C-alpha cells in the first residue's frame, strides 16, 4: 500500500512545529474538536508526529491522519438520528485495532473497515499509522447496502482486488478533492459508495440477498422518479406475485416494496435538498423530480421521517457539508 502523500493539503492539526513536551496535550485536545465525541485515552508522552488533514467531499468529508501509537474512543451523544455518518477507514501505513458492537479487527496496510457513528467504538494504533477516513452519509450507504451495519469493525482485506480498487480510488480522491466543484464532489461520493459493493465483504452480503430482491431494488432505483410507480409494477417486472416479493423484501430489508419506494424517494429528496446542483430548484420541483405528485403530501411525509420540514432541512443541512 502506497503512503499517503499529504503535500499540498491544508492541515487541521499539525504537531511538527509544536514543542515535543506539549504535543500529547495538544493532540488530546485537538481530536475531539475535529471529531466531536472522540477522546484520547493514551498516547506516548512526546509523540514524534501527529497531523490531521481535511478535504470536504460534498455531503461528507475525507480525512488523512498521521499519528504515533495512541488509543482513542468515541461515544455518541444526542439522538441516533443526529449521527448521520458511516465512516470507511483505510489503513495506509502501520497497523490499528478497531472495535465496535462486540466486533474487533486488526488492520494492516491496504485493509479497510467500517465504523458506524451511531454507536461507540475504540481504535488502538499499534505503531506509527497513516489512516484515511471517508465519512459518508449513513442513510445513503444503508439504502444501497442495508446489511452494512452488520459489518462494522469487520476486516475487509486489502489483498482482495475489489478492496484494492476502492483503496486506490480513495487515495486518488484525496489528491484531487480540492480541485473538484461541489457538484463533482457529490458525484464522486456517490461513485465511491457504489464502489463499496466491489469489496469482498459487501460482495458476499449482496450475493446473500435474494436475487429477486436485488433486481427489485435496481428496478426501483431506475424508476423512482415515475409518479405512478407501484409495488405491483415492481413485482410484475420480476415475474413474481406482489405478496411473494413483499415477503422476500421484508425478510431481506425489513421493508415492503411500497415501504422501500417511499424510503428511497424521501432519502433522495433529502439528498437533493442539500445538493448544490438543486440549489435553484423549489421544494415542489424536487418533490416532483422524486416521484411525489402532491407537494403538501411530500412535506407531511418528509416531516414524519426527518422530524423537520423540507425547508428547515435545506437551511440546516448546509453546514453539514463544510
Describe the overall structure:
This protein is of the alpha+beta class and 322 residues long. Helix content is 43%, strand content 21%. It has twelve helices and eleven strands. The chain has helices at 20-34, 138-144, 161-176, 182-195, 200-208, 211-223, 231-237, 242-253, 257-273, 283-289, 295-306, 310-317; strands at 11-14, 38-43, 50-57, 60-67, 70-74, 85-93, 96-100, 103-107, 112-116, 121-125, 129-137. Helix 6 packs across helix 9 (257-273). The two termini are 29 Å apart. The model has no long low-confidence stretch (mean pLDDT 83).
Rg over alpha carbons? 21 Å
General form: globular
Spatial strand arrangement across the major sheet: 1-3-4-11-6-9
Number of helices: 12
| Mean pLDDT across every amino acid position | 83
Helical residues, percent: 40-55%
Instruction: Give the total of beta strands.
Output: 11
Structural class: alpha+beta
| Quaternary form | single chain
- Beta content comes to 15-25%
Helix and strand run = EHEEEEEEEEEEHHHHHHHHHHH
Q: Pick out the low-confidence regions.
A: none
Q: How would you characterize the largest beta sheet?
A: 6 strands, antiparallel
Q: Could you give the distance between the termini?
A: 29 Å
Concise overview:
The chain is α+β, with helices and mostly antiparallel strands and 322 residues long.
How is this fold's topology laid out?
Blueprint: E1 11-14, H1 20-34, E2 38-43, E3 50-57, E4 60-67, E5 70-74, E6 85-93, E7 96-100, E8 103-107, E9 112-116, E10 121-125, E11 129-137, H2 138-144, H3 161-176, H4 182-195, H5 200-208, H6 211-223, H7 231-237, H8 242-253, H9 257-273, H10 283-289, H11 295-306, H12 310-317
Antiparallel strand pairs: 1-3, 2-5, 3-4, 4-11, 5-10, 6-9, 6-11, 7-8, 7-10
Helix pairs in contact: 6-9
Amino acid at each position: 500500500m502506497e503512503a499517503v502523500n499529504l503535500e499540498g493539503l491544508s492541515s487541521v492539526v499539525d504537531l511538527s512545529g509544536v514543542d515535543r513536551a506539549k504535543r500529547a496535550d495538544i493532540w488530546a485536545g485537538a481530536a475531539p474538536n475535529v471529531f466531536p465525541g472522540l477522546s484520547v485515552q493514551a498516547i506516548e508522552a512526546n509523540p514524534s508526529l501527529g497531523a490531521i488533514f481535511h478535504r470536504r467531499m460534498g455531503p461528507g468529508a475525507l480525512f488523512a491522519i498521521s499519528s504515533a501509537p495512541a488509543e482513542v474512543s468515541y461515544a455518541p451523544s444526542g439522538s441516533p438520528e443526529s449521527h448521520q455518518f458511516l465512516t470507511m477507514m483505510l489503513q495506509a501505513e502501520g497497523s490499528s485495532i478497531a472495535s465496535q458492537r462486540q466486533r474487533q479487527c486488526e488492520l494492516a496496510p491496504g485493509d479497510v473497515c467500517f465504523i458506524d457513528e451511531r454507536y461507540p467504538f475504540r481504535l488502538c494504533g499499534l505503531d506509527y499509522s497513516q489512516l484515511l477516513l471517508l465519512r459518508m452519509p449513513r442513510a445513503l450507504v444503508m439504502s444501497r447496502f442495508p446489511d452494512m451495519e452488520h459489518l462494522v469493525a469487520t476486516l475487509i482485506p486489502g489483498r482482495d482486488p475489489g478492496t484494492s480498487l476502492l483503496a486506490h480510488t480513495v487515495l486518488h480522491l484525496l489528491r484531487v478533492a480540492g480541485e473538484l466543484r461541489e457538484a463533482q464532489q457529490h458525484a464522486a461520493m456517490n461513485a465511491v459508495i457504489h464502489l463499496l459493493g466491489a469489496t469482498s465483504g459487501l460482495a458476499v452480503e449482496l450475493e446473500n440477498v435474494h436475487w429477486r430482491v436485488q433486481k427489485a431494488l435496481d428496478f426501483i432505483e431506475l424508476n423512482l422518479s415515475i409518479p405512478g410507480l407501484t409495488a405491483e409494477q415492481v413485482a410484475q417486472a420480476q415475474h413474481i406475485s406482489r405478496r411473494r416479493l413483499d415477503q422476500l423484501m421484508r425478510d431481506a430489508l425489513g421493508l415492503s416494496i411500497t415501504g422501500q419506494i417511499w424510503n428511497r424517494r424521501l432519502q433522495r429528496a433529502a439528498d437533493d435538498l442539500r445538493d448544490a446542483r438543486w440549489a435553484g430548484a423549489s421544494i415542489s420541483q424536487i418533490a416532483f423530480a422524486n416521484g411525489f405528485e402532491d407537494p403538501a403530501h411530500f412535506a407531511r411525509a418528509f416531516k414524519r421521517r426527518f422530524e423537520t420540514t423540507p425547508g428547515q432541512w435545506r437551511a440546516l443541512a448546509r453546514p453539514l457539508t463544510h
